[in-house]
Amino acid sequence: MITRQLKINDFLKYGILAPVVIWLMLFLVIPYFNLLMYSFWKNGPFAIEHTPTFENYIRFFSLKKGSGAPLWVLFDTFRIALIVTVCAVIISYPLAYFINFGIKNAKYKKMFYMLAVIPLWISYVMKAYSWTIILGTHGLLNSFLIWLHITEKPMEVFLYNDFSVIIAMVNIYVPFVLMPLYTSLEQIPRNLIEASEDLGCNPARTFFKVVFPLSLPGVITGATYAFTLSMGDFLAPQLLGGATSSTKIANIVQMQFGTSNNWPYGAAIGVVILVLILVLLALTGKVEKHFSKLDAEEGK
Amino acid sequence: MKKTLFCAFALTAGLVLLNGCKGKAVGTAAVDWNKIDFKGEQLNLLTWEQYADKTFVEPFEKKYNCKINATFFASGDDLLAKIKAGGGSTYDIISPSGDMAGYLVDAGMLEPIDTTHISAWNDIPETFKRNDVVKGTDIYGVPYLWGPDYVMYNADVIKKPIESWNELWDPQYVGRLALHDDISNIYMIGKMLGRDAADGQALYNMSDADLAYAKDKLSTLNKSIRKYWSNGGELENLFKNKEVDIAVGWPSTLKNLQDQGMNMKWCIPKEGCTGWFDRLMIVKGSQHVQLATLWIDWCTSAQGEALGSIATTFSVSNPKAADYLNADQKKIAMVDEMYQFFKSINFWSYVKNREAYNDTWTEVKTSK
Amino acid sequence: MQRKVNEMKKNNTGSVILICVVILILLFLYFPVAIVTLYSFNKDSINSFPMGGLTFHWYAVMIHNKPLITSLVNSVEVAAVGTCIAIFIGVPGALGMHKYNFPGKKALEKIVIMPMMLPGIITGIAILTFLEMAGIMQGRLAVILGHSTFLIGTVLPQVYTRLRQLDRNIEEASLDLGASELQTFCYIILPNIKTAVFGAALLSFSLSMDEIPVTYFLNGVFTTLPIRILAMTRNGFTPEINAICSIILLLSVFAVVFSNSISKKDEGYAKSTH
Q1: Whole-prediction pTM value?
Q2: Three-state DSSP string of A221-282
Q3: Does residue B19 form part of some domain?
Q4: At residue C270, does pLDDT exceed 60?
Q5: Fewer Cβ within 10 Å of end Cβ, chain B: N or C?
């Protein structure tokens, strides 16, 4: 009787876990490894040749072509992603802080929280497209500046360059930073703040000594999201970039699976990006754990 | 209640998945060329965006009781990527330009066309029929429409035409120029270097040194470029929103802008220009070869080509189309000077070292 | 005393500055989309200031845009099927992770959220190259498989988190009283997690409806709504795009408010059972 129950339990255990394990193995784990394998193949004239070679990686890492080399594009994308991340964090923080600590009334808190969440659900294309309306030569910003007599002619400097790409990406990725940041601020025990104020600290000092350090895990999570998503974004550069700002590293990958038609090379670049992001995730994971431990100790 | 929901979901999911997996039934019945009722069969086109205008799609759909479903590509490479993704089960008709046609034949991606059922075949002059679509006795493409990559500009802003390609680098055009996001810009540099003076095909076989020069030269043009356009509609928008005043593009864009009231003009610099000659072809594995052949027959007929030319202002390959064009339409499509115009254009051919050209072009777009 | 007053004054200026900054931030987040919505009523087809006049014309054009409607239907289909698959695989998976410890559990936790942590392009090309080798061409099936995969990463963690908040005692009590595992699941666990499941399903549905990067590499000619809108912005835009975006915005706002109101209610219930 007991053995039969145990057997049913085992069956149940494997039964409910099997679908997810099999699915993820089949459509996630194997594809990522397959991508790695693909990156070592060669692109023949009519079909892909399954002969192992390093040529895709050599081509990617070679610097001999000067400033247009893919490696420089990677660094440039890095730079853009960093700017986007810093801006997104700077913008998200006051909002997250305000909703958590600036509002006492629960109803207003809920309303503001929703205001903060909704942008996450607004379609990507709508946000990116909106900046072409605002920043264009005859768009809103230019018309507004002329109407205010600050400028006389429309300025082209707002659209189709790195500036417009960055602004659009910040606008798109702020909600991704906001969520983990908000959560980590929400989890700070209120009695710590009360204690700090009782001990004579003004809000500014309380913030820097208590709130900010405790919110670091959320900042790191949010910043990581913004950074990795910006690194891999190929849509915003395409829509808002100009002559030299519309081709980021993800666009180069996109081209290999499209018009340049070199899947193994695209796979190789994809693997490079994947490894970079995994390393970053591992590092930030460790840093986050370190700060979480500190938080836990301080909380005691 | 829960069980019913579960069953409903599972059923839906199952049906949809099956639908996705299911291949289409292959028709092996003998072909009846007298048939004109195709009972709502769908013909899938993969063409340049201009080649599915309803003025010539609707008469065909009515006559043969079928449906035309068109997908568009933005460049030869884009076409290739899409065919590789879709194949004959997704597309029946394609309309590549000369830069891809030969490659597709060599790669075995096409069905031979039975020219006995193309009524205009003998009306199309031999000059327009190139060998790159012929393999042995099989013909894989029928000449359709053609045209130049010329300079178009907003005549309200730019008062005189461009005399030489070098003028594009002039400071007055900084931030006001748009070029096609395509390796065809490298051919332009080749023309400027005079590489095709002796051999027209030299533009498609440029040396590494020339490619390096082209990359440097085009990189210096970047500051003049507002944006690289990928399809005609994008270029139209750039002009309409006054983001650019001058561009290298296709006649169809010019026509659309003029129709919307813009004062657009075109010119071809003295070094000449490149151009494209599109052929209609059938993808290998197509499930609707007969209907596809009838489509090609219609498009290349005198009336079909006339309608195509009116919609796009492209030049025709079937001289009899002139019968269906009025004086203005003939002038725009250069019908009366057909042969001289044809000779003045260096038509795109297949670039064997495509990877080098693609690399060069990518580097132009990423050089700072 | 003076110091306290000064500090209060500083507090107030600090608060005022904070409020101003917050308003600017909210403007930054909402102004662009508000403009798109406003300009969907623009008479002119070019987006410039000032607007040419008000009209509903573009909404009418949008409804008659057949390829757009087809892509909408496609998107809904993919979202529905993908969400179903994610629920039927993710909820049992979450349950399994909650009840059992097994080797590789931590790895599974990390792997399931990979598609959310990595940029979509990486997941997209990985699944594309794999499906190509498996003989599945780009198209509807590929898109559904791709979407389901990352939607599992939405459903499983959310349901798993909720399961961990449940009071284990009730579950054990049920089993002690003789109920089978299945009965315990249906009558005890499921009602308590149903809002988490529903919330995850709603989130999955909207994520799928707006997904571009993974879809871009898997779709071939099978157009989904965001892909179609993307093509429209590159093909020659008219305020028709503004119109469709505004409708989607409205639906998204509604979805957020709706899902928020349910989950908050249930969270309260879960907390109160402790």
Answers
A1: 0.86
A2: HHHHHHHHHHHCCCHHHHHHCCCCCCCCHHHHHHHHCCCCCCHHHHHHHHHHHHHHHHHHHH
A3: no
A4: no
A5: N
